[in-house]
Structures are given as structure tokens and as C-alpha cells.
Amino acid sequence: MAHSHEDHSGHDHVWAPDLTKNQGLVLGTLAHSEAPLSAYDILDRLRGDGLKAPLQVYRALDKLVERGLAHRLESLNAFVACADEHCHRKGMIAFAICESCGKVDEFADTVIEERLGDWALAKGFKVARTTMEMRGQCAACIARAS
């Protein structure tokens, strides 16, 4: 089923009513993508919607990431829409990235977050953000390979 970039059915938890047009277009593109997208991938998909410059995409991405509506995967230099319906949190966010199919699962783990927080407190380290990325193969790809 094809989705327009502004159709967010099934992705209501990632939507916010006060997004700019460009933020809405970028978030819609991320929400309907099967895999993480680079800023240039997003720009290529949105040229027909009026986005012409990388700076337009980067500005929208910066605001979406700042608000917790999208996340940057550091190791891929790519972005995903927030997949957690209890999203927009400022604590630790973790991602499991399948190197075969590109699927990304987002999750949080309070035990790991607490341990990292305890370490930072003991060392006097002020944490701005914590993102963890695991890379490997998802269960579906492992099953296909068997």
C-alpha cells in the first residue's frame, strides 16, 4: 500500500500538530520508510514536494531529532522516525540494526541507563545524550538463512 508523505495513518504517535511543512514532509518520509534514510535520500524523495536544498532537510531533521520525533543513527549517518509510542524521552535510546535487511528496532533499557548514569555521576561526567547501536542480524534474516 502506497502512502503519501503526508499520510501518517498507523504512525500517529510520531505526529505533532505544530510541525512546519518541511518537518511534516521529512517526518512522513521517515515514518513510511522500511529502512533508515540519509538526508540526501530524504531530499531525493521530496524534490517533487518542493524541497530543493539539503539545508531544508537538515533543518527539519535537526528540529525533529531535538523533539524526539526522529533519531539519528550515528554509525549509518542516517535517520529513522521514532518507533516507540512512548517516545520523545530524553534518556538512553538503543537501536538494533540488521545488517542484512536494514530493519531497525528501537528500545530502551532502564538497567543499562541506570548503570551508565551511575558511572557518569561517579566520574562527574555530564551526559548530553546516550545512543547505543547494536549491529547484527534480525531473527527474520537468521531464519531465512537457515
- Tell me the series of helices and strands, N- to C-terminal: HHHEEEEHEH
**Whole-number count of domains:** 1
Strand content: 15-25%
Structural class: alpha+beta
Could you say what the CATH topology is called? Answer: Arc Repressor Mutant, subunit A
Q: Can you name the CATH architecture? A: Orthogonal Bundle
CATH superfamily: Winged helix-like DNA-binding domain superfamily/Winged helix DNA-binding domain
Which percent bin holds the helix content? Answer: 25-40%
Based on CA atoms alone, the radius of gyration comes out at 16 Å
Low-confidence stretches: 1-13
For the largest beta-sheet, the strand count, sense and barrel status come to: 3 strands, mixed
Number of helical elements? 5
* Overall spatial form: globular
Write structural notes for this entry:
It is built from 5 helices and 5 strands. The strands form 2 sheets. A 3-stranded mixed β-sheet has the order 4-3-5, with no helix packed on it. It has a two-stranded antiparallel ribbon with strand order 1-2. A hairpin with a 4-residue loop joins strand 1 and strand 2. 24% of the residues are buried.
Please summarize what this structure is.
By secondary structure, the chain is an alpha+beta fold.
